[in-house]
Amino acid sequence: MSPRIHLPSGWVTFVFTDIEGSTRLAQLLGSGYRPVLWEHRRLLRDTLAGTDGAELLTEGDSFFLAFPDAAAALTACLTAQRALSTHDWPTPEATPKVRMGLHTGYAEPRDGEYASPEVHRAARVAAAAHGGQVLCSAATARHAEPLPSGASLLDLGLHRLRGFDDRERLFQLVAPGLERQFPRPRTADAVPHNLPTQVTSFIGRETERAELDLLVRRHRLVTVLGAGGAGKTRMAVELAGGMVEAYPDGVWFVDIATVTDPGLVAFAVAAVLGLRPEPGRPMLDTLVEYAAARQMLVVLDTCDAQPAACAEVISRLLAGGSGVRVLATSRESFGLPGEVVWRIPPLSVDPQPGRTESDAVALLLDRTAAARGGRPPDWAEAGDLRRVVRRLDGLPLAIELAAARLRVLSAGQLAARLDDVLGTLDAGRVVPEPPADRGWMGNQQDTVDLVAAAAGAVPPSAAHRAVQRSATERHLTMQATVTWSYRTLGPRASRLLRWLAVFAGPVELSTVEWLLDDDPLDPLSVLVDKSMLLAEPHASGSTYRMLDPIRAYAARRLVEAGEEQAARDRHVAWSAHALERAHLGPDGRPVTLSLYALDPLASELRAALRWCATGGSARAGLRLAGGLDQWWRERGLPREARLWLFRLYGRIAETGEAIPEAELAAAYHLHSLHAGADGEFAEELRYSQRAEAAARQAGDAGLLARVLAGRAAPLIDMGQFAEAERVCREVIDWAHEQQVTGDALFAIYNLAELLWRRGALNEAAELLGAARPVEAARPVERGRRSVDMLLGMVALARGDLVAAHEHLLVALRSRMSHGYHGRACDTVNAVAVRCAAGGELSTAARLFGAAQATRAQLRATPGIYGSYWLERQAELRRVLGDAAFDAAYGEGGELGLEEAAALALAVEHPDLGADSIRFRTAGAAAPRQGGPGRQELDRRERA
Questions:
Q1: What angle do CA 618, 621, 624 make, to 5 degrees?
Q2: Do 480 and 429 form a contact (C-beta atoms < 8 A)?
Q3: pLDDT tens digits for range 852-910
Q4: What is the distance between the alpha carbons of residues 628 and 691, in angstroms, rounded to a whole number?
Q5: pTM of structure
Q6: Contact 836, 872 (CB under 8 A)
Q7: pLDDT range class, residue 418, cuts 50, 70, 90
Q8: pLDDT score of 694
Q9: What dihedral do alpha carbons 724, 725, 731, 736 form, nearest 10°?
Q10: Are 759 and 750 in contact (CB under 8 A)?
Q11: Which of 667, 661, 653 is nearest to 694 (CA)?
């Protein structure tokens, strides 16, 4: 530097410039680099010559200048950048990208140079800039008045410059002719990350967080898979936020959803890391070289937007250096070596041990309180809130949207509306237009576009912006969320998704094959890989489950495709087939009916019935309802059964569908039984009469016998016992004449009960003995073991505890084994009477309490035994005393039916007792009716 140059003193603005990527540019241009370098120097000197700036140092591609005036310094930098950008360079790749940094501080020159920390600060400001960018410190911004015409300073926030402990506020010069969008400044932030700031609390998922944390620490590539709205992004950001200190070179979040072209994925990652393209070199190579020597965690979000490009970037990053780890979120896996796939489960809808509420309910409570201005939901809404989260399958996004609806609806109203999941959750949602200036994170795609354009890639376009808005909006409604995945499906996979919407619950592979009548493995794999279906492995094989919000979306698509009629009719056919299979063994032969086999089918059969009652065949619906005949009553659901039948009758009237008289008779007969179980005795009699009329029209003797066998039930319910007995005898005799005795079995049971009631015990026992082989020959009825139950009641009335014990436990064991819960309650009550008669008074009270609790839960009517149970309980209360009886009865009320049955089955056999009648001497007095247990009760009562 010539000593004749005047160096400013006092408040001096220092300017540093250099060419970004000069080494790579020199390698690219070879001998052509020197002319570019000289031309760059000439342009800078020409633009700075008319200013007061003093050139202190020119070395290679760098300039160091000092200005007495901050505004003049900024004007000079602006003029220089415009000259560089408008110059006609040999090729676009040869264009030098010059970064400039300014800082103003108090300095005095000595011996033709500045020995001041302000110079170093200015150099660090320049080092933080990108090619084409002009950065300045807050001190320069304060002194730079007036700014050049049309120029402004954009506040980039506080940053820690390398080598300085404090933070410096940096500003970017913005003016016409200058680039505006750049990656974050290259500064040494104390916390190197760009993770999005969350505005809501993170609820639950402690177990999942711990599991995922362990995987990320052990493996270099972990992919979080899940359906749209499952909370993948939130989980990844929450986890990564706790790992910042573990990665010296940072934790960096990249949203791939905003990337509009596969070739721009590497640019998106580079933009987040503060990298610019190097002339003549693929961006991915620059990225890999940068990451090779660093220890950092890259969080790639929504990789399913560009799966192949993401897989390439991840593979190259991991191969380029051992310090890089990747946590990706996607709706499908990459299939890369070393990839660990972790599927995020929905939020738990059942409370964990030691907790009062599940994670799903806790999230809904938190968000509902926020939606209602801080007011938590009323405790009375708790049950409906649990219904809501179960209906939404614990899907976090759906729960968040549901909470927003609770601003205008009660929890009960919301739960009632969730049959239309999408319509309810998305109601009133308005997708906003993105604001003009969205800040650095919002402008990530703009940055990627501009960086890519500088490298000769696809320029920004309106189509890119549309995709960007789509990516941003995909979590604003459930429909947009699912559409994001649906549009990536091929024809076979999308059709399978639509057709699977007709199922209400998980399906097996064989079920999918039935539905499509084709090999579904390929499209099924696609849906599982893309998280549209959840594959749940079991010992017997995997099942495939669709979350309810996805099912609602697929059902809409099914209608739009004009496929609903065909798909739902196919589902009805499958339901009928499944119902038939439940009555058959592996060899195709009838087996004893177990209602447990019908439990898993219930939701599917309800879905099929709904279609039959609204758009399908009412005749098919009547057959399905008939297949669930005993299940409705044994599960305490006779009212639901009646409602389905009423709907099917309405469908028949609407369509005029022809129903054979035999099938109508069967439906009316079942309706009568359901009405009786529901306490609607007039309706019971009315439908019994209709069933008889239709059965006579059909001319089927067996059907008529079954219908007539049920005629006694309404008479018994109305207290007309003598008439009921007459009807039973007539039906039994007629059925015997027609050789359809098995079809009159219900009349035999009713007659036996009536005989027991009036004390005709020998006749009842004889009748039941003859009925045993008939019952055993009928698989639909033998699981109930009604003959043993009734023989046990006869034995109780005779005082024969041994026979009572044996018959009742056989009946109870069979009824519990085959799922006859309502009838098992009667048997538990009968065992309670046997215990009271045998002196086991506390056990008897507990069993009475347990039976009553289950009966109340099933909403079952008392039946013919109701008054008998009450009498025995009253007698037991007198002996035990109110306090002891109530305590034991209350304990029993806390037992479930299985626990109560286990208690009853554990009752000791009477033969094992010292006072068993089988060990009495021949001269001992025979017990009177009521047995030794009754004598013991009498003795205790007298005492």
A1: 160
A2: no
A3: 999 888 888 778 898 999 999 999 999 999 999 999 999 999 999 999 999 999 998 88
A4: 18
A5: 0.65
A6: yes
A7: low
A8: 95
A9: 160
A10: no
A11: 661
